[in-house]
């Protein structure tokens, strides 16, 4: 695998938002796959207060060179003023799966 891959983490407020963002990212070829994990409880500080919310976590698999476009798409579709988008480098895995992620996140026109 020559392309650098990343796993992006993004929380969303509800199932509908998670579904909308996941489909937008996969449909556009910005992500190969998005896993939606419901039941996340987030505790965080926002505007000087401690907040606690139920959220859904998105696990987004993509190429590192797609990150800027992916972030733009998330910000465009996300209802939060400051959405969480964190990346973790993928340093290994099943070679066939990694190749699939690389090919599938090149863009909608190249997907098969």
Report the count of strand segments.
4
Number of helical segments with 4 or more residues: 3
User: Could you list the spans in which at least 5 consecutive residues all have pLDDT below 50?
Assistant: none
Second rung of CATH, namely the architecture: 2-Layer Sandwich
Structural class: alpha+beta
Under CATH at level 1, the class stands as: Alpha Beta
**What is the fold-level CATH name, i.e. the topology?**
Alpha-Beta Plaits
Instruction: Name the average pLDDT.
Output: 94
Fraction of helical residues: 25-40%
* End-to-end Cα distance: 19 Å
* Number of discrete domains: 1
Strand fraction equals 35-45%
Shape: elongated
Provide the gyration radius in Å. Answer: 14 Å
Elements, N to C (H/E): EHEEHEH
Biggest sheet details: 4 strands, antiparallel
Give a verbal description of the structure.
The protein is of the alpha+beta class and 112 residues long. The protein has one domain: Alpha-Beta Plaits. A 4-stranded antiparallel β-sheet has the order 2-3-1-4. Helix 1 runs antiparallel to helix 2. The model has no long low-confidence stretch (mean pLDDT 94).
Quick synopsis:
This protein is of the alpha+beta class and 112 residues long. It has one domain: 2-Layer Sandwich (Alpha-Beta Plaits). Helix content is 30%, strand content 37%.
Helices and strands in order:
Layout: E1 5-12, H1 15-27, E2 33-46, E3 49-63, H2 67-77, E4 86-89, H3 95-104
Antiparallel strand pairs: 1-3, 1-4, 2-3
């Amino acid at each position: 695998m020559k392309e650098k891959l990343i796993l992006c983490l993004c929380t969303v407020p509800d199932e509908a938002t998670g579904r909308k963002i996941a489909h937008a990212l996969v449909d556009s070829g910005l992500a190969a796959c998005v896993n939606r994990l419901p039941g996340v409880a987030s505790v965080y500080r926002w505007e000087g207060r401690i907040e606690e919310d139920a959220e859904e976590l998105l696990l987004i698999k993509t190429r590192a060179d797609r990150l800027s476009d992916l972030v733009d798409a998330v910000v465009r579709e996300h209802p939060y003023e400051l959405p969480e988008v964190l990346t973790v480098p993928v340093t290994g895995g099943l070679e066939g799966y990694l190749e699939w992620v690389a090919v599938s996140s090149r863009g909608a026109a190249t997907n098969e």
